[in-house]
Amino acid sequence: MMVGWTILLAIATGLGFALAGVMWLQVQKAKQRLALADAGAADQSARQRALEALSDGGFIAWLPDGTIWSRGLATLFDISPDTVTSLEDLSPFLAEDEYSALVEITTLLRQEGMSFRLELRPGDGERIIEAKGQPGDEDGIFTAIVWLRDIGAPVYEARAAQQRTATTLDETSRQLDGYTALLADLPVPVYRRGPDLVMDWCNEAYATLVNSTVKEVIASKGFEIETPLMPNQAQTLAEAVRGGGESVSESRHFVVGGQRRTLDVTEVPGAVSENIIGFVRDITHIEEADVELSRHIDAHAEVLNNLSTAISIFGPDKRLDYFNNAFAELWQMDEDWLHRGPTHGEVLDELRENRRIPEQADFPAYKQGFMRLYNDLLETREDVIYAPDGRVLRQVISPHPFGGLFFLAEDITDALVLERSYNTLIAVQQETLDNLYEGVAVYGGDGRLKLANSAFARIWGLDENQLQGEPHISEVVEAVRGNLVSTRDWSEIRDILIAQATVRENISGRMRRRGDVVIDFASVALPDGNALFTYVDVTDSVNVEHALLQRNEALEAADRLKSEFLANVSYELRTPLNVIIGFTEVLGNEFFGDLNDRQKEYTADILHSSNQLLELINNILDLASVEAGQLDLELRRFDVHEVLENVMALAYEPATKQKLEMVLDCPVDFGVIEGDERRIKQVLYRLLSNALKFSNTGGKIVIAAAYHGDDVALSIADNGVGISDADQEVVFETFRRAAPPDRQRSVGLGLSLVKSFVELHGGRVQLDSTLGEGTKVTCFLLPRQGEGKSAAGDGD
């Protein structure tokens, strides 16, 4: 069956090539007839040579008188010459089906004269041998002939070329499909216009942009990105591309998803035929960035315009591109003229003409120096200009990032004056500190010594060179280590001293240095973050203080001894005095018989003097108790009006004898206060006794109680002789008195006890007196526990 198909294929192939090989056969036959005619019909060898000459491989020719086997067959089938004498000799070198097909189709050729073409693959199949069957010619020279030739290389090359072409076409097709898919999936909207400038293709991004689908866009011949005001905008752009032969871009505003967007539409001529390719970019963010950039530029320009520093920018063309108000004001130049963009040289000429810059011996060279800066300046340069009008200007020149020069200028005249004043102040301050007795040291926030005077070095026994170069606090502490005296470990002392210099707290204290030197120190946190330390050598003051303390202790001991002595003496005296008073009272009352007038007078004098002595002794005991801090008050609530009445009743008899008027100025419902009633009565009675003692006959004494703010004021006032200003300062001191020469003298304990008792109650005593007019003594007492007018009803 396979052989039959092979024969049919060979016949079909032969028919297929029949028309194409008619001319070739005619030529071959002509060549054969000429060659055979020349060889002669009788010489088979000559005919074979003639056919060999016509063959480019090998052949098998059937002649009327026999068969000719070409020597070329040995070469085609790689066998020995003269080996092939029949078709059977070729069977070992051909596949079975190929050999059978060759035999069958050769039989058809010889019997029926049917031409054929058959491809044979001998051996390993790497070569291809073409077999062409040709029937005999009309001259009868041969009845049939089969031409064989090796066509492996041309066929393989043709097939390889065909395969390469097919592969290239497939690859190109795949790439085209890939590019098409890539463009279809590209997030950038892309479309194509045909020769008629109508859109015939777009990708999904474009369809989404115009709120449609790809099919709808193509079916409707394109949804163009146009504004209602310019309906032919897309056509105009395409015609511009067609007419100019190059890409054209333009920006359009288009509503996408309900938002106004700015789109950049670009169309370029297509590489094939007359197509036009277009793509769309959303540049809304660029437009917004441009707007924002413009706002920033305007804002920066406004900020620069409000600066006090003069700013100017000269572009690469050496023309003035920008200046602020301060520039025009500093150089006193016309702003309208500056807005025209003069060159740098023209600006310098204007400044020179108006005497705004210093005079130059060679102004052209001076100006040329500025011109060279446009090419030579690589780093910032700073100049100081001494203007003819006395101003000192600081000018900074730096290369501008976009080319040209950037100028900053400011008037530093006041700053120089301030700096000069500051330097003077610093010098004065340093000189002042160096002449201070106290040592001064200032430590910065980094723990380094920023400032120290000579006294600091002297107090701590340091060389002033050790304080130069801002040494650290740890170095200073190590330097004074040998001068410090302490029972603590040195590492602990060192940490404490370093911490004091670094902690921003106000501290003070005392340290001891070797040689019994005592140093007081204090630190103050300064506003600038530094810490100020002061050191004072107080050795002499401490020694004096120590001596004074020792003396004071001795005086206090002596005073205590005095008080104890007085208390003991007074106690010892009061016992026999009480006996004297008792017996005198017995005698005065005539319990053991009548007394004559002289005896009664003597008895009365003895009793009076004894009572005075007893009062003096009691006063001394009370004073000693107060000074020793052993006097306790018996506090209770008492009625003020009642106490004043009782005290007034005690003095009624002596006042009557002296014809003195006594007045009580206190309402009955005045109220109650809390205190020691007995001591308050003592105070009032002593004051009343003094008033009786220093009042003239017919005088007036007022006993009063009143509220003075939160205090209760109890006062005794008289219109007697009064007290001088000098005596007023001492009357409340112990054993001091201020009695006129013609008055009875006292020991000087009464007012001292008055002051002591009132102060024990937490009050105070006030003396108001004018010599020759009278005296008023007021005791201010606290009402205690809120007692006052509201407690008037609680007197009992």
Task: Describe what this molecule looks like in 3D.
- The protein is of the alpha+beta class and 796 residues long.
- The protein has 6 domains: 2-150, Beta-Lactamase, CATH 3.30.450; 186-288, PAS domain (Beta-Lactamase, 2-Layer Sandwich); 314-411, Beta-Lactamase (2-Layer Sandwich); 418-537, Beta-Lactamase; 547-631, Helix Hairpins (Orthogonal Bundle), CATH 1.10.287; 634-794, Histidine kinase-like ATPase, C-terminal domain (Heat Shock Protein 90), CATH 3.30.565.10.
- It has 24 helices and 27 strands.
- The chain has a 5-stranded antiparallel sheet, with helices on both faces. A 5-stranded antiparallel sheet has the order 7-6-10-9-8, with helices on both faces. A 5-stranded antiparallel sheet has the order 12-11-15-14-13.
Low-pLDDT regions: 1-27, 741-748, 785-796
Which oligomeric form is depicted?
single chain
Second CATH tier, the architecture of the largest domain? 2-Layer Sandwich
Placed side by side, the strands forming the largest sheet appear as 2-1-5-4-3
Fourth-level CATH superfamily of the largest domain: Histidine kinase-like ATPase, C-terminal domain
Q: Compute the gyration radius: what is it?
A: 70 Å
Based on secondary structure, the structural category is alpha+beta
Query: Which CATH first-tier class of the largest domain would you pick?
Result: Alpha Beta
* Total helical elements: 24
Structure summarized in a few sentences:
This protein is of the alpha+beta class and 796 residues long. It has 24 helices and 27 strands.
Write a concise keyword list for the protein shown above:
796 residues, Beta-Lactamase, 5-stranded antiparallel β-sheet, 24 helices, disordered C terminus
